[in-house]
User: Fold these one by one.
Assistant:
Number 1:
Amino acid sequence: MTNLDLTSEICVIGSGAGGGLAAGYLAEAGHEVLLLEEGVQVKASQMTQREEQMLPLLYRDGGKQFSADGGVAVLQGRALGGSTVVNMADVVPVPGGVLAHWAQVYGVDRFTPQQWAKAAGIAAQAIGANRIQSHELNRNAQLLLEGGRALGIAGDVFEHNRVGCVGSGYCLIGCAYDAKKSTALTWIPRGVATGNLRVKTGARVSRLPHKNGRVRAVEGQLLEGHKVVGRFRVKADRIILAAGAIHSPLILQASLLGGPVVGKNLSLQPQAPVSARFPETVRMFRGIPQAAYLHGRETCTPEQGLGGFRIESVSATPGMAAVNGVGWGPELLEVFRDYTHMGAALCLVPDAPMGQVRRKGFRPVIDYPFSPSWLERLREAMDTCARVFLASGAEQVYLPVVGFPVVESTTDLEALKNWPLAPASLSLISSHPQGTCRMGVDPQTSVVDLGFGLHGVDNLQILDASVFPSTASSHTMLPVMQAALLGLGAV
Ligand SMILES: Cc1cc2nc3c(=O)[nH]c(=O)nc-3n(C[C@H](O)[C@H](O)[C@H](O)COP(=O)(O)OP(=O)(O)OC[C@H]3O[C@@H](n4cnc5c(N)ncnc54)[C@H](O)[C@@H]3O)c2cc1C
Ligand code: SF4
């Protein structure tokens, strides 16, 4: 067993949207930074485009991290670059209405809309954000927009952080072309190039020993794959925790830090995949996998924050599609026999903070109850999505609801009105967990203060998706980067 003792001015834990940015930014600002990441670095040449190889290498639990009742697959990256390596690269900032909601309901009013906008600009430029061009839309995206137009539902294309994309369609299992500009290709190399940033992968932080309101060290295990091969201890003046919304609260809980609500107020923003079989060839698995969306039913108010739902074109690699609700048993076989004719979309239904993360050893237990009002919005979203696909020519539509018959006409959707929706009967995905170290002024109801500092501790900031008081946006990469830049005082 190796025992490693390290020192650094600043220690950053986690290398995703928040941690990768913080490490690069601080190194460029002249600070000595050590970045600790549990996962490994996977270079483009190692991205084999094979699910059985890439899922275990790039994802938390190989992509099989679920909520405790099995109702939601909680997807997270676990590699240098974190979830930005496996994400769909859509670039969506925090909407103004959400900022008003945070100020009105949670007292998070320190930042101006102008500051958030400036942070969005800096982050977007760093990751090469640009608008997807209409000739880049695959047939799946076109069909969604066509169906939306037929029903009078407004749609648009995303901005994304792909540069030089060849449209292979493999985004979810890592880009073999270095086209997706994750933090592993942007902020982290920028920091390394200064000579101020050291990166240690295979370093899983387990505890933050502390005394008199200061974190004294960062302790954890050295890993080879999932095997523990040693231990480390880092002494640093300043700690930035950015292990994501599931693991940042876990590390705090293990360290007896974070106060009474650490791990609570979890938003999963679950998404429901709806698929459809078309008479024409669609080949949704080629081209940019998530390029267009219908936002006609989204809402955002200062009282409620994000609400309603949006529908996004999507394609998954076959294994992920099979696990996440394209169908069951003989129906699933049918879907795969005709996979080139299949299209799909995600119903993205923002939630209120409802869940929590608890610790069982080193592992999180994710409790996530569904509220009746959220389930009703999900029902409406799936109904709308099915109608959109039927309007764009689908012959069959498959809902991610166990036992619900294949939909062949709008009449078949009548049954959805009273169909019981419960966690065990749904197949849902979360790619945007957030809120478990919520920002606020009161240590009894929040974990970090308005400067992103842990209440009562003077040398620990949290800069990741866990700090949002409620769902930040329909997508969380850019919002996390915006927040991190605010936390670092960059704007
Ligand atoms: C499949 C998928 C698709 C997505 N699509 C989009 C999209 O199109 N657009 C968008 O805006 N957002 C998308 N997201 C969400 C977005 O990528 C995340 O919200 C964002 O990356 C979160 O940033 P973070 O810093 O909080 O955490 P992460 O980026 O998840 O990074 C956390 C890092 O911390 C590491 N870590 C965890 N525990 C420890 C520990 N104990 N010790 C050391 N390291 C640790 C993890 O391995 C990980 O690398 C998607 C996410 C996924 C998973
Ligand atoms: S679609 Fe583009 S960004 Fe995604 S994996 Fe292929 S080349 Fe990379």
Number 2:
Amino acid sequence: MPKNYKADNYNKNFVDQNMMGPNSMVILEELLGNIKLQREIKVLDLGCGKALSSVFLATEFGVQVFAVDLWINATKNYQRLQQVHAEDLVIPLHADAHQLPFADGYFDAVVSIDAYQYFGCDDKYYDEHLKPLLKKDALVAISIPGMKYELHKNVPDEMKPFWPDKALITWHGVNWWKEMFEGKLRDLEVKEMTCFDRAWGDWLSTDDPYAIMDRKMMAADHGRYMNLVSITGKSI
Ligand SMILES: C[S@@+](CC[C@H](N)C(=O)[O-])C[C@H]1O[C@@H](n2cnc3c(N)ncnc32)[C@H](O)[C@@H]1O
């Protein structure tokens, strides 16, 4: 039986218009699993894109979300948040993950969906830029697109048109990410996610030009190489 996702309770047009990749609401639901976030805690949504995940966090948990993104304008995100009456709980900000404008020890949790790979493949990123902003024992919950195994330079011929070397620098498997976070987080869990087909299916069914290009990539992949990786743990 297909799982029912809370994402289905949200306005489909709103979700379809604001995805920037696999459905971040679906991913976030699996990423948080049985974790219940306390109302009003401060959550950083890092690389929030068009703030779908921020809306989900605010609506499902009543937490205060700081929705930070580099490519998406904060005013546009504020207008989007107003459309779904989430503007009181979600604070949109335009900032680079390397220059986050927050006090040390500010956040009770950080979530990041389909964004951490753009800055967090640098071994020093977490310790230098993210850890200082987190309270001790803060929840860290990250999902990134990844690979079932490291392809390195051995990209299969059928995937070469879709995967420039640049893209593959950021796509890694479970073991690569485990090594990256070992010793950095308590109760570390790094897993392949089960919502891959559903989250990608939602994205590919939109008429976004990038989704239309991604349809060809997914057809060529045919379930062989790509996955979604989840990383959860507590800050030390
Ligand atoms: C594929 S989109 C995903 C957006 C959203 N999380 C989602 O799942 O729909 C990747 C996001 O990462 C953000 N990003 C990339 N590099 C960043 C950086 N250095 N600082 C902050 N955000 C960054 C981009 O602005 C972009 O919105």
